[in-house]
Amino acid sequence: MPAHVPNAGLTRRDLLKRTGGLAALAAFTAACGGNTGRPSSGGGDGGSKVNLSQWYHQYGETGTQQAATKYAKAYTDANVTVQWTPGDYGSKLSSGLLSNKGPDVFESQLNIGMVKSNQVVALDDIMADVKDDFQPGDLATNTVDGKIYGIRMIVDPQVIYYRKSLLDKAGIKPPETIDDLISAAKELTTNKMKGIFVGNDGGNALGGPAIHAGGGTLLTDDNKIGFTGADQAKALGKLHELYASKAVLLGSPTDWTDPSAINQGLVAMQWIGMWAVPGMQKALGDDLGVIAFPALDAQHKAAVYSGGWTQFVSAKSPNVDAAKKFVKWLWIDQEADQEDWSLNYGFHIPPRKSLAAKAAKLQSGVAAETVKLTQDHGFTDNPAWTPKMNTALTDVLTNVIKKGADPAAEIAKAEKTVNAELSRLFG
Fold it and tell me: What is the pTM of this model?
């Protein structure tokens, strides 16, 4: 279940582009073909129970749709219908949130526009008793003006996994700086294998981690642009050096969210999420190591993007209280289902501290190492980061990585867009 990547171009898990409610209602009709996913009210086996529609995007892992349907079916206080959406979930969701024929409950990532447009309801009341059991970052990414609007469902750290035997054979230590990473990728490249795979676009997914590895952040805690410094420009420039080194795999049959490249021996290292660990272990056994995205230099720290998906209640739902009750039941009360969702369809970190601490599958090996890297170096999303900001940063990354444009000049262009958005949001 790879999570969305707010730092760069879209992946299959960044397909929603931070909804924000910008699409037209007509697009919803076209996307849905008139099927809202909500059963008709009353009657049938459901009697007088409330009908709720729960929306998911299409996960790639086998068994996820069946699991989501199983959870919903087990709920006895309402008739919950799961709508599983392949393709452009983001556009469909944006439109659906404008209509009372959209979802009652849905997964997404919080964007401040969803709050300002009254698309989601606050969940502080159902979170009150368990708030301290969630990681601070997972609360912060779902909080606007002191109110919590979503419950984190899974945490998806993104890191670099590598073949230990290949590094050992080449006499290479796991990279500690970006220069080390570039050097290792070059040395590991042969006529049959590239050193690293970071995505078919050349590495846009590395934008956020590189900025953090250079001492910056997309937005500061007081909502100012956080990547205009010389070190952040230098870190982004290093992504071009990596791309230009000819050690990066391009044209892989699947993108970086899938482990096929490293599993099939196309690369020695791959940028990917912890969700892929079971599949990599099946293919590679114990020949698997992990590092965070390396620091720019000894004066900075490594970085791990800690993505994830969150459950929300639509303010347009005709049954808000019933929807909140269901969300509480599934994502707060049903600990066994929460553990199942995080650990049996790829590996993810359960957002609840208590569940993560006892998750047996995450207590050893490369999974435990990934959890530790996330604890030490993890960063997550600021809900004030908007789609326009993301587009501006994507343009920076595309121009710098592939075209070799001057990072500082490109950042200056993005700064204008980011500041304009911040002024619009906060005055």
Answer: 0.88
